Amino acid sequence: MGKYIRKRLLQVIPVVFGITILTFFIMQLAPGGPLTGMLSPRSSPEALQRAREALGLDKPILVQYWNWLKELVQGNFGYSTYNGQPVLEQILERLPATLLLTITAFVISFVVGIPLGVYSATHKYSKGDYGLTVFSFIGISIPSFFFGMGLIYIFALKLNWLPTSGFGSATFRGTGMALVLHKLRYLIMPAIVMSLSNLATVMRFARSSMIETLNQDYIRTARAKGLSEKVVIYRHALKNSMIPVITIFGQSIPNLFGGAYITEKVFGWPGMGLLGVDAITNRDYQILMGLTLFTAILVMLGNLLADIMYSIVDPRIRY
Amino acid sequence: MERKKTKWKQRQNLFKTDAWKRFRKNKLALVGTVVILILILAAVLAPLLAQNDPYVSLKGSNGLVMTDMSPSESGTILGTDSLGRDEFSRLVYAARVSMSVGLVAVGISTVVGIVLGAISGYFGGAADMIIMRCVDVINCFPVMFLIIIIAAILNPSIYNVMIVIGLCNWTGTARLVRGEILRVREMEYVQAAVSLGATDFRIIFSHIIPNVMAPIIVEATMQMARAILTEASLSYLGCGVQLPTASWGNMLNEANNLATLTSRPWQWIPAGACIFLAVLSINFIGDGLRDAFDAKQKK
Questions:
Q1: pLDDT in tens, A179-200
Q2: Are A52 and A32 in contact (CB under 8 A)?
Q3: What pLDDT score was predicted for residue B280?
Q4: Which of A117, A201, A214, A297 is the most exposed, having the fewest neighbouring CB atoms within 10 Å of its CB?
C-alpha cells in the first residue's frame, strides 16, 4: 500500500505542471497576459520597473512561465485588476463560505443518495425504483439556477419560510445556538440546489454497484445458508457495494465546485463563486485565473485523497 | 456503386433492427424523442411561429412601449419582457441558438475526442502518455471554471461559446475511444486489415471507428445534454450568448431579480422549463440508446 501511495503522490507532479501550464497559456489570451497582474498597482513607478525586469516581461515565454510559477509558489496569485487587492487574500476570505456550502452539499448527496440507491437496487423494477430513476434523471437535467429560482419563488416569496438570499441578516443580534440556527436557514436552499445533481449521480452509482454486488457468488452462498434478506443485504452486500462509491468522491468535488458560480449567484452566497461572478462583470481576469487555479489544485488534492482512501479500504487495488 | 447500394439497404432496415426494437420499448426514451422533435420543429419554424419580431419592443395602441406585460394584458402568448419584446418570439428564436450551440459544441468535442482517443489507443507509447496526461489535467479543472475563464477572456459571442464548450469536453470521448480501440485492436478483422497492408489511417477510420460507433453515439447524446446545460449556465452568468440575441440562459439572467420572480412568472418559467425539457429529453434518449445498443445488458 505504501508503494501505491508513493506512486500516486509522484503522479501529482506532472499534473500540477499541467494545471499551471494550461492556466498560464489561457492567461496569455487575456489583455496584459499573466505576468502584469502579478505586479502590485500600489508600488511606485521605480519599484514597478524593477519588478517588471525581475519578472522578465521582455524574456522568452518559458522564462516568463518559470518566473510566474515562482511567484505562485510564494503565494503571489497577482493583484485584482479591478480593485488592486491581492487575489489570494480575496479568495481565502471567501473560501470558508464556499467550503461550508460545498461540504454540506457533499454530505447531503451521499447521506441521501446512498440509501435511495440501495433501496432502488433491492427493489429493482418496482414502482419505487422506477420513480427514483425518473427523479435521478430530473436531478441531472434541471438547470440549477432554474431550480434555485423555483425554490426561492415557493419557499421564500410565497410561503415566506426561508430567506431569499445572502448568509445571515445584518440586523440579527443573537449569539450561540440562535445564531447557528439563524445562519442555517440561509444554508438550506443553496445546499439543496448544489447537492441535487450530485445526489442523483451518487444514487445511480450506488444502485448499479449494489445490483452488481447482489449478483456475486458470496451473496448466493449467504442466501443459500438461509440468512434473512436483511442480514444478506446490510451485513454482506452493503459494505462491499459501497467500495466503488468512493470513486465518486473524487468526481464529485469538481462538479460541486463547478456549481458554485451558479448557486452562489442565485442565492447571493458570499463565497468564491460570487467573487467569480463579480469578476466576470468587471472583466477581472486575474481573479478568474486565481479562482481557476485554486480550485484546480483543491480538486487535485481531493482526488488524491479519494484514491488513497480507496487503496486503504480496498487493498486489492494495485497499479 | 455496389458499396453504396448495400449502405442504402442497411439504412432502410433501421426500423427493423434489434436496437430499434429495444429502443421502442423504452417509454421514457420515446417521450424524450417526441419532445425533442417538437422543440427542433419549433426552432426550425421559428419565423412562422413567432407573431412578432423578437428584437423589437412592442408598442401599445397608446404608442407606449408595452414593458413587463402579462400574456392577457399584451395579447401575446407569453407576455412581454422588461423592454417590451414578445417573450414567446424570443423563446422560439432562443431554441435555435441553444440547440445549435449544443449541436456544434458536441460536434467539435466528438471529433476531437475520436481523433485524440484513436491516436492514443492505436499508437500507444509517448503519444498515449501525453494525451492521457492532458486528459488528467483537464479533468482536474472543474469544467465550468475552465469554460468560464476562457469565455470571459475571449469576446463573448455565440461562436466562441460553441468552440470553448467543444474544446473543454472532449476528454470523455477520448477515453472511451481509446478504451474501445485497445479492446478491438487485436481482433481478427483488424489483424486481417493489417496483413492486407491497409494504412493506419484506413484501419482506424474505416475499420475500427465504425465498429465502436455505438458507445460514441451514446456518449455524444449525453454530452449534448450537458452542452445545452453549460451554454444556459454561461449565458445565465453573462459570459455566454450576449444580448440582444436571445438564448434560454440569458432570458433567465434578465429575469433574475425578486420583483420578476414574484410578480412576472411568464418571464422566467417558460425559458427555464425549455432548458429543463430539452436536457431531460436528451438524457432519456441517451439512456434509451445505451440500453438499445448494449445487447448484453438485458432488462
A1: 777 778 888 899 999 999 899 9
A2: no
A3: 93
A4: A297
- Which residues, in sequence order, are CB contacts of B56 under 8 Å at separation 6+? B85
> Which residues form the domain of A168?
95-270
Say yes or no to pLDDT of B13 above 70: no
Cis peptide before A163 (omega within 30 of 0): no
CB B235, CB B247: distance < 8 Å: yes
Is ipTM strictly over 0.85? no
Does residue A33 lie within any of the structural domains? no
A25 assigned to some structural domain:
no
Q: A225: distance to nearest CA of chain B, Å?
A: 28
Residues A3-47: pLDDT tens digits? 778 888 888 888 888 888 888 888 888 776 666 667 666 667 777
CB burial of A162-187 (b: ≥16 within 10 Å; e: otherwise) equals bbbbebeeeeeeeeeeeeeebeeebb
Residues of B in contact with A18 (CB under 8 A): 133-134, 136-137, 140
Nearest CA in chain B to A289: B149
Cβ proximity of A117 and A248 under 8 Å:
no
3-state helix, strand, coil in chain A (%, to 5): 75, 0, 25
Burial class (CB in 10 A: 0-12, 13-18, 19+), B134: middle
B142 at the A interface (CB within 8 A)? yes
- Chain B CB contacts of A292 below 8 Å: 141, 145-146, 148-149
Among the partner-chain residues A143, A281, A291, the one whose CB lies closest to the CB of B272 is A143
Contact B275, B98 (CB under 8 A): yes
Nearest CA in chain A to B28: A134
Q: Which one is predicted more confidently, A39 or A305?
A: A305
**CA B150 to each of CA A122, A265, B163: distance values in angstroms, whole numbers, following the listed order:** 45, 19, 10
- Predicted confidence at residue B299, as pLDDT, reads 39
Contact B256 A141 (CB under 8 A): no
The total number of structural domains that make up chain A: 1
CATH code of the domain containing A116 = 1.10.3720.10
Contact: B280, A291; criterion CB under 8 Å: no
Gap between the Cα atoms of A227 and B15, Å rounded: 48
- Residue A2 lies inside a defined structural domain of this protein: no
Q: Is B256 on the interface with A (CB under 8 A)?
A: yes
Cβ-contact B268, B252 below 8 angstroms: yes
Nearest CA in chain B to A25: B150
Strand partners, B86: B80
pTM over 0.80, yes/no: yes
Taking the CA of residue A63 and the nearest CA in chain B, the distance in Å comes to: 22
Q: Is residue A48 part of a domain?
A: no
Query: How far, in Å, CA of B144 to CA of B165, rounded?
Result: 9
The cell numbers describing A194, all together, are 448544489
Distances (CA, A) of B287 to B29, B185, B218, B222, B275: 7, 27, 8, 8, 18
B181 and B231 Cβ atoms separated by less than 8 Å: no
Size of interface A-B (CB pairs under 8 A): 146
